[in-house]
Structures are given as C-alpha cells and as structure tokens.
Design goal:
Number of strands: 2
Helix content: 55-70%
Largest sheet: 2 strands, antiparallel
CATH superfamily: Hypothetical protein af1432
Structural class: mainly alpha
Bound molecules: fe (ii) ion
CATH class: Mainly Alpha
CATH topology: Hypothetical protein af1432
Strand order of the largest sheet: 1-2
Strand content: under 5%
Radius of gyration: 15 Å
Number of domains: 1
Length: 167
C-alpha cells in the first residue's frame, strides 16, 4: 500500500513538472528510437525521471523538482537512432551536448537543467563534472535504469504506462 502511494506521488510529480516536455511532439517522437534492449528513449527518460524523484524523496532532499524532472526527461534528447549506421560518430561522448542543443531549441532551459543534460555521463566523461545535486542524482539514476533496461523491462514500467495514458 505504501509502495503504491509512493508510486502515485512519483507519477504526479513527473506528470506535473514535466507536462510540457511529455506533451511535445519531439519528446513523443523519441518513442521510435531504441535506447537499451527493447526500451525506447522515451520510456528510458520517463523511467529515469521517476527514479530521480524517488531518490530525492528517499533522501529527503529539498531540490528543484521542476528542474530534476525536466533535466531527466531531456537528458537523452539527441533525437536520432544511435543504432543507425549514419548516426553522429562517438555517440557516447557527444550525445549529451547534442541533447542540450536540442533541448535549448525546443524549451526554456534553466542552468540546473542544462548542467544535468550536459553532464549526465559523468564519470565516463571526466571533463563534465556535475555542479548541482540534481545532476548527481541524474548520473546515478541514469546508470541504475540503463543497467536494468539492458536485461529487462524498465523500472516504473507501470508508472510509465499511466503517464502515457495521461499526457
Ligand atoms: Fe545518455
Ligand atoms: Fe540515459
């Protein structure tokens, strides 16, 4: 029961803070790009947003939840299929910068969100060190979610379905 309530709270937070991103055509379009296993980029980023909110709540951190959710939803906003042979070279290194450029084109991005998107690959990219706690949470949530998605369905798959039904 407590678990259900927590999931509902996470769902409400992601839906309310990320409403414009979730409803946008370009973010919806990331459904057609595969991220890990059978999981699309859109599912991955919603799962990561849920995980970020869950970590922040468990640690009782007073954060910018608006930036936390939006930065998570936009962290892989590179808008191509990285499995295509024509995708930009060195995707692993470059996609965070490409995602930030695309996000800034489509949305009003604040400095916390920009830091989250640009530096989410830390510590794989040691030249982009997180400046905000929101970014640190994203680096952890992204890696935890990515690992699970490689072998199984995403964390919060039921919440993802509910969010899709309510956007
Ligand atoms: Fe990424
Ligand atoms: Fe990611």
């Amino acid at each position: 029961m407590r678990k259900t309530l927590r999931k509902q709270q996470i769902q409400r937070t992601v839906l309310s803070k990320g409403a414009d991103v979730l409803a946008s055509e370009n973010h919806k379009g990331t459904e057609k790009y595969i991220q890990h296993g059978d999981v699309s980029v859109r599912e991955h980023t919603i799962s990561v947003a849920c995980m970020c909110v869950s970590i922040a709540q468990k640690l009782h951190l007073n954060l910018d939840y608006y930036a936390l959710v939006r930065g998570a939803l936009l962290h892989d906003y590179f808008l191509y299929d990285w499995h295509d042979k024509d995708h930009p070279k060195r995707h692993g290194w470059k996609h965070a910068s490409i995602a930030l450029e695309n996000a800034a084109d489509d949305f009003s991005i604040n400095p916390v969100e920009a830091d989250m998107i640009k530096k989410h690959m830390f510590p794989f990219n040691l030249t982009a060190v997180p400046r905000y706690r929101e970014t640190v949470i994203l680096t952890v949530a992204d890696k935890v979610c990515s690992f699970k998605e490689t072998f199984s369905k995403p964390f919060y798959s039921d919440v993802i379905d509910n969010i899709e039904d309510n956007v």
